[in-house]
Amino acid sequence: MASSVNPTVRRRRLGQELRRLRELKGMTAEQVAERLLVSQSKISRLENGRRSISQRDVRDLCGVYEVEDHRIVDSLMQMAKDSRQQGWWHSFGDIPYSVYIGLETDAASLRAYDPQVVPGLLQTQPYAQALIQGAIPEISPADAEKRVQVRMRRQDRVSSEENPLRLWTVMDEAALHRAVGTPEIMKQQLEHLVRMSELPHVTVQVIPFTNGAHPGLNGQYAILEFPDSTDSSVVYIEGVTSDLYLEKSNDVQKYSVMYEHLRAQALNPEDSRDYIAKMAREHGG
What we know:
Elements: H1 7-25, H2 29-36, H3 40-47, H4 55-64, H5 70-83, H6 98-106, E1 109-114, H7 125-135, H8 141-154, H9 156-159, E2 166-172, H10 174-177, H11 183-197, E3 202-207, E4 221-225, E5 234-237, E6 244-246, H12 249-265, H13 269-283
Parallel strand pairs: 1-2, 2-3
Antiparallel strand pairs: 1-4, 4-5, 5-6
Helix pairs in contact: 1-5, 2-3, 4-5, 7-8, 11-13
């Protein structure tokens, strides 16, 4: 059964604490790896939360860092235990972007730029089905259905009444013209986008073709921010075979500034909503 504990976030927080202990000790990741007879890449992956960490790993690292306070050790051991529990997404089997789902599930806000398609958190089920089948032509019907179900489940964060995700998305006009599925699917999708944009915690903006070149031409990305101030923001860039997660403050700042330029060049939310409604009528014939 999936736990309410978010293992991705637990791994991330645990990794940050282990990095802090290493730096307090004045050791490099290479020195720690040599002491434990492991690869330096393992230490790096443990610290950035990209792999699960065992209680034995925590015990060994605390030994290297000479942590004498048993309360600290016990707390880190518990975090390691929690980090190995399953999130809701694990019930769907092997999901290639499970790290991202874990971060998104715990995020307080998400700023996203999508140049080609409607963002996943705002997609209808028929649109998602047509998009996945078209984007991954070799995918089996079962795997396609699994991806659709995961995408629909992710949307619970947007529709939540108690703790909704604050979502701000900027889309290129191309996403409104690209005919994914039938004209009726596109019409329903854009009408759904209009309705979602009316929610107080959802903002949708469109960058029209007439605005020419803009900072988003390099591709899709998302910036996730978290309710706990100790959790650094993350820039997520989706790839074909692997994804990129940027957490250094300088990288996050550069993408945040770029996002401000995107918002400034886009139509304001009201005009964007009107334009999306107009495109929905055109797709409907």
